[in-house]
Amino acid sequence: MDTKLLGSPFSPFANRAELALKLKGVAYEYIEEVKGKKSELLLNSNPVYKMIPVLIHKDQPVCESMMIVEYIDEFWAVNGPVILPPDPYDRAQARFWAKYVDDKIPTPFRIVIGLLPGSKEDAIQEIQTTLQLLESVLAKCSKGKAFFGRDTIGYLDIALGCFLSWFKAVEMMNAGVNILDEAKMPLLAEWANRFCSDDVVKEVMPEPNVLVEHAKKNAVQAKEN
Asked: Residue ranges of the GST N-terminal domain (predicted)?
């Protein structure tokens, strides 16, 4: 098979790449990377960052999750729904806000699940502040449609949506925490329900309870080390 994806089901970044492949109907081989054990294939395919996800297509590696999504959308342009908006302005806006998601969410997200040191309370507040702004973005660009400016899952939906299972897992692990507060972010809460209810998304996104167990296992291993 000439298309391979190096990833992990527990990585929202790898979930992005896999979701794009499935939305486009691309056949691929999934190679799971085990935490703490970087394979030679990964190290050779991404020698700069040595991180998942990596798409290997015709022996050529493509790194960074949203770059992979763009590559999939462009190479398999005739397959499935278009992921990036066709309009140049809309496309620029989708890229801008996807970059905003990656600037604002991953670091506090890693603090909340214990991969980085820091205050979990402050990190959760930072994520909520980011989501409140994205609520206004959704209100402006949705134009009455189901997703960010469209009726099908697109670029910005993938960028943000692949964190949703982890948000729910964090809520399950922290009593009283409501990251996606429906009272404060009603549009985003409805969008999240639509995204997570999509059949293709269900094939890719891990269940929150699975992520909870994964997080607990990582916490035990961290203490032992």
From this structure: 1-80
For the chain, the domain total comes to: 2
Range of the domain at 17: 3-75
53 shares its domain with 94: no
**DSSP-based three-state secondary structure for 32:** strand
Q: Which pTM value belongs to this model?
A: 0.95
Q: H or E element: which one contains 56?
A: strand 54-57
Cα four-point dihedral sign 216, 9, 81, 68:
positive
Q: Please, which residues bridge with residue 57 across strands? A: 3, 60
Q: Indicate which CATH number applies to the domain containing 186.
A: 1.20.1050.10
Task: Give per-residue pLDDT as tens, 95-139.
Answer: 999 999 999 999 999 999 888 899 999 999 999 999 999 999 999
At residue 117, the 3 state secondary structure works out as: coil
- The answer on 115 and 92 residing in a single domain is yes
